[in-house]
Amino acid sequence: MAQTAAQQALDSLRVKYHLPAMLAAVIQPQRICYVYGGVRRSDQTTQITLTDYFHFGSDTKGVTSLLAGKLVEQGKIRWESKLLDVVPSLRTTALPAYADVTLAALLSHRAGIPPYDSGAKIRRLPAFSGTVRQKRQQFAAFVLQQPPVLPGPGEVYAYSNAGYALAALMLEQVSQRSWEELVARAFHKLKLHYVVGFPNRGDAQQPWGHWRQAATDSVLTPLGPLHPYHLQDFLAPAGDLAMPLPDYARLIQKHLRGLLGHANYLKAKTYQLLHFGKPSYAYGWGVLKLPATGAPVSFHNGTAGTFYCHTILYPSQQVALIVLTNAGGEAAEAACYALHRRLKQLYLQGQLE
C-alpha cells in the first residue's frame, strides 16, 4: 500500500490512541495491500516488520471452525454430531441439559456452555494435569457439571470460550489428533506460519503485548516473555494463536474467495456455512448486514487484553480487512475500528492503488 492517505490514517490513529504499533491488510480476491507502523515494545525503538507475529485472540475461533469444516467434508464428523456420542466418557457426569449438544451448537455459541471469558473465573477452575488433550477432557467434564447459561435479552446465542474447547475435543476424538496437531497439519498444507501463545514467549524479539495494569493508568505497560499472565493451554482453540499479518491475510483471502464461490482449502458451500450458516453468529464468525443493501458481512474481534485483532469480510464488495495492534483495551478497539472504516472508504473510492 503506497505511502498515501492509508499510511497517514494509520499513523495518526496510532498517535491519537497512544498505541505501540498498528498493522492492517486490505484483502481482495487477487490482491492484498498492507500498511503498518510503530514499535515492537513501547520501551524500545525497534520498529515492527510485516514478518512479526501478532496475537489474534478470539479470531482463533475462525481457525477452529475451519478445522471442523475440513473434518466434516472428510466425513469424519457431522455438524449435528452430539458431543456425548463423540466423547462418551463425558456422559456419566454431564448434566441432562447437555445431552443433545452438537458440534454446530458449540461452534455457534448455542449450547448453553458457561463462557469462561474472564481470568477470575478461570483461576477458580480445579487443577488439570497430563497432556493438553487430557486437560481439555478434564475441563470438559468439569464444565458439563455446571448449570447452562441462557442468551441475554434480545440475543440468540451466549458467547462461550469453553464451548470452543469442547468443540475441539470432538475434533480430537474423531481425528485422533490433538487440536494443536490439526492446526499444524492444516497450516503446513496452507504454507502459513503461526505460533500458539503470545509471540514473545518463544522469541523475546517478537512484538510484546501491552495493557494498562490498572484502570487509572495513563501509560501502556509492555508484558515481557516471563510475565505470568497467559491463556490456559486447554482453551487455546478459543483464542491463543499468533501469526504474521501476511500469513493471516492469505488465510482470510481464502475465506473471501470461498464466499465468492471459489473452492480452495474448503468447498465454497462450507465457507458459506461457516460465515453465514446462522444469524448473528455462525461458526466462528459474527454476522451483520450492510444497512443500505442488507448484504451479509462477517467479522470477529479478538483480544486477550494485550493485543487486539479486528477481522471483517464484505463479500458483496469483494473485500476483507484486518487491523492489528499490540495493545489491548478500549483505545485499541476504537483505533482498529476507526482504521477499518477509513481503509474501507479509501478502497471504495479506488484510492488504494
TrEMBL record:
<dbReference type="InterPro" id="IPR012338">
    <property type="entry name" value="Beta-lactam/transpept-like"/>
</dbReference>
<feature type="domain" description="Beta-lactamase-related">
    <location>
        <begin position="8"/>
        <end position="334"/>
    </location>
</feature>
<dbReference type="Pfam" id="PF00144">
    <property type="entry name" value="Beta-lactamase"/>
</dbReference>
<protein>
    <submittedName>
        <fullName>Beta-lactamase family protein</fullName>
    </submittedName>
</protein>
<keyword id="KW-0472">Membrane</keyword>
<dbReference type="InterPro" id="IPR050491">
    <property type="entry name" value="AmpC-like"/>
</dbReference>
<dbReference type="GO" id="GO:0016020">
    <property type="term" value="C:membrane"/>
</dbReference>
<dbReference type="InterPro" id="IPR001466">
    <property type="entry name" value="Beta-lactam-related"/>
</dbReference>
